[in-house]
UniProtKB/TrEMBL annotation:
<dbReference type="InterPro" id="IPR036388">
    <property type="entry name" value="WH-like_DNA-bd_sf"/>
</dbReference>
<feature type="domain" description="HTH crp-type">
    <location>
        <begin position="152"/>
        <end position="222"/>
    </location>
</feature>
<keyword id="KW-0804">Transcription</keyword>
<dbReference type="InterPro" id="IPR036390">
    <property type="entry name" value="WH_DNA-bd_sf"/>
</dbReference>
<dbReference type="Pfam" id="PF00027">
    <property type="entry name" value="cNMP_binding"/>
</dbReference>
<feature type="domain" description="Cyclic nucleotide-binding">
    <location>
        <begin position="18"/>
        <end position="121"/>
    </location>
</feature>
<dbReference type="InterPro" id="IPR050397">
    <property type="entry name" value="Env_Response_Regulators"/>
</dbReference>
<dbReference type="Pfam" id="PF13545">
    <property type="entry name" value="HTH_Crp_2"/>
</dbReference>
<protein>
    <submittedName>
        <fullName>Crp/Fnr family transcriptional regulator</fullName>
    </submittedName>
</protein>
<dbReference type="InterPro" id="IPR018490">
    <property type="entry name" value="cNMP-bd_dom_sf"/>
</dbReference>
<dbReference type="InterPro" id="IPR014710">
    <property type="entry name" value="RmlC-like_jellyroll"/>
</dbReference>
<keyword id="KW-0805">Transcription regulation</keyword>
<dbReference type="InterPro" id="IPR012318">
    <property type="entry name" value="HTH_CRP"/>
</dbReference>
<dbReference type="InterPro" id="IPR000595">
    <property type="entry name" value="cNMP-bd_dom"/>
</dbReference>
<keyword id="KW-0238">DNA-binding</keyword>
Length: 234
């Protein structure tokens, strides 16, 4: 990883939480204090249990956040892309990061320190309110994920994951615009790699999805949605 300074005013990322909720004149005081970090694919930029060093916002790229579970196995808890916030779960309540985070491709991150974030929250009510709504939405998603694990079987969880990444990242040339290993799919779906491979193979034989290397493409969105419709999670 290496650091450099990027200019928010010329940034093309329209999904950035900072740009959405800080006006240009408000930005001036704070963006000069941020750091930009460039990560190569697979670089780890947050370590679970490490001292909190502010919040990360994805300027460009994709990342995964993971939490250590039973027997030291990592569970993927979130996939992120342009504009998303990373490291927020420990902010304000803990002095340590509660997750680890890795770049899924070459990624540019904007890091705002603890002190800068607190300054923004204390002086910009609109931003504080927007962040409160963000936390409420993330809490709702977390509660839904707990219910999914309890109520969905393994095939349904894999289908739910495929539909989630299809919605979040979209498809280009018939393939979802994110590359995940079969192990990463299994980790996110809460199953074993062997089970995930079998289910993906079955979905492919049923011509519901297609594969090209690690890439996946959904051929029948409606059919996959119908399989998990009774759970009403999307």
């Amino acid at each position: 990883m290496k650091e450099e300074q990027a200019i928010c005013y010329s940034c093309m990322n329209e999904n950035c939480f900072i740009k959405k909720h800080l006006h240009l004149e408000q930005m001036m005081t704070y963006v000069s204090k941020k750091q930009n970090i460039i990560c190569k694919k697979s670089d780890q930029f947050i370590t679970e249990g490490a001292p909190l060093q502010g919040l990360y916002f994805i300027c460009k790229g994709k990342a995964k956040t993971v939490k250590t579970g039973i027997n030291g196995r990592e569970q993927i808890v979130r996939l992120t892309t342009n504009g998303d916030i990373i490291g927020f779960r420990g902010f304000g309540t803990s002095k340590k990061y509660l997750i680890s985070a890795y770049a899924l491709e070459d990624t540019v991150l904007c890091n705002f320190s603890n002190e800068t974030m607190l300054e923004i929250l204390q002086h910009i009510p609109e931003f504080t309110y927007a962040l409160m709504l963000f936390y409420a939405d993330e809490l709702n998603k977390s509660e839904n994920n707990i219910r999914k694990i309890a109520h969905m079987n393994v095939r349904e969880r894999v289908i739910d994951l495929l539909l989630y990444i299809h919605r979040k990242f979209g498809q280009k040339n018939g393939l979802i615009d994110i590359e995940l290993s079969r192990k990463e799919i299994a980790d996110f779906a809460g199953t074993t790699e062997e089970q995930a491979i079998r289910i993906l193979s079955s979905l492919k034989k049923e011509t519901l999805i297609k594969t090209e290397g690690k890439r996946l493409g959904i051929l029948e969105v409606a059919a996959l949605r119908s399989e998990i419709m009774e759970h009403k999670y999307f």
